[in-house]
Write a structure and sequence with these properties.
Blueprint lengths: L6 H12 L5 H8 L3 H13 L19 E8 L5 H12 L4 E6 L6 E7 L2 H14 L4 E6 L15
Antiparallel strand pairs: 1-3, 1-4, 2-3
Helix pairs in contact: 1-2, 2-3
Amino acid sequence: MSVRIDATDRKILIELQRDASQSLDEIARQVGSSKTPVWNRIRKMREAGVIGRQTVELDAQALGFEACFFVLIRTSEHEADWQAAFLRALKERPEVQEAHRLAGDIDYILKVRVKNARAYDAFYQALISEVRVYNVTALLSMEEIKSTGALPLEA
């Protein structure tokens, strides 16, 4: 569902993506408006589903999660029961930060954040004990160059 947003809404969204913890007064100042109209716009965008839940971005390195793996999965199973079991297994594992079903030779890609290689192996062993996969390739990220959840909005 596409929601109609104007230039002021975009400015508000850009500010919220930059730092959702800033005060309503600060957001209003940044977008050139006053507090009440900005609050009303934010409320309407929440109700329309444009703005989802708000979370805190944690520093993985500072908390000891030093290994990020991109896991490529190929499967020969495409039945609904297998897919349901696979999705359940992914949702139960907090190490899986992202999971995508792909077009092409690889069926799924996962972003898995763990403390170290041993923790990744435990994740891998648990996953393959629950669901059959044809092939798994794990790629260790050596350096995170850019990571953002922000959409490329233009004011």
